[in-house]
Design goal:
Elements (H helix, E strand, L loop, with lengths): L5 H21 L6 H8 L3 H8 L2 H22 L10 H18 L1 H8 L9 H17 L5 H9 L4 H7 L3 H16 L4
Helix pairs in contact: 1-2, 2-3, 4-5, 4-6, 5-7, 5-10, 6-9, 7-8, 8-10
Keywords: DNA-binding
Protein name: AcrR family transcriptional regulator
InterPro entries: Homeodomain-like_sf, HTH-type_TetR-like_transc_reg, HTH_TetR
Length: 186
């Protein structure tokens, strides 16, 4: 793997910052290649060479936030990161994922609806594996893989938009589901 040149890394950071600001201000419609190039101070050709097209730029924005979130739940401080009981970590993870979803809802909608299995790519599999392990540890009698899918389902971007539930309501609903998942059978 080749090392990214320092100037290329700086340009990438400027481009992603400008793109994120445009999306925050204008929504996904604001993510035009010419607008991002102008806002970041790079040429449109640089943008196309680097990201291919608008969707490549959107995926780069998602990827940057995804890396931050995964770093937090894999090695960050508890309760999201290691060091807290598994049940607490599941709750912190789900609440963090709600926040992460709302932070890039339009971008995630675009990415998750790109194809029939687009939602189930690398990030979903990482979430599923992480939740399955934590659930199995917290409640060995649970069907952890099924429970992980059930807990992740309400966070599909299209369902979040369709239902219109605010973050607090989603977190509360997930807490209720989680209570049932972690309860041991009597």
């Amino acid at each position: 793997m080749t090392q990214e040149r320092a100037d290329a890394a700086r340009n990438r950071a400027k481009i992603l910052a400008a793109a994120a600001e445009l999306v925050a201000d204008k929504g996904i419609e604001g993510l035009g290649m010419a607008e991002v190039a102008a806002a970041s101070g790079v040429g449109v050709g640089t943008l196309y060479r680097r990201f291919g097209d608008r969707s490549g730029l959107a995926y780069a924005l998602i990827d940057a936030k995804e890396r931050e979130f995964q770093e937090a739940f894999l090695s960050g401080p508890p309760p999201l990161g290691p060091g807290a009981p598994s049940g607490e970590r599941v709750r912190a993870f789900l609440h963090g994922l709600v926040d992460r979803t709302f932070a890039q809802l339009d971008l995630l909608l675009m990415a998750e609806t790109a194809g029939p299995f687009a939602r189930f790519g690398g990030a979903y599999e990482a979430y599923h594996r992480h939740l399955s392990l934590l659930i199995a540890d917290a409640n060995p009698s649970a069907d952890a893989p099924f429970a992980a899918d059930a807990l992740l389902a309400p966070l599909a971007a299209n369902l979040v938009i369709h239902r219109g539930r605010p973050p607090a309501a989603l977190k509360s609903g997930l807490d209720e589901l989680l209570h049932g998942v972690l309860a041991s059978p009597t």
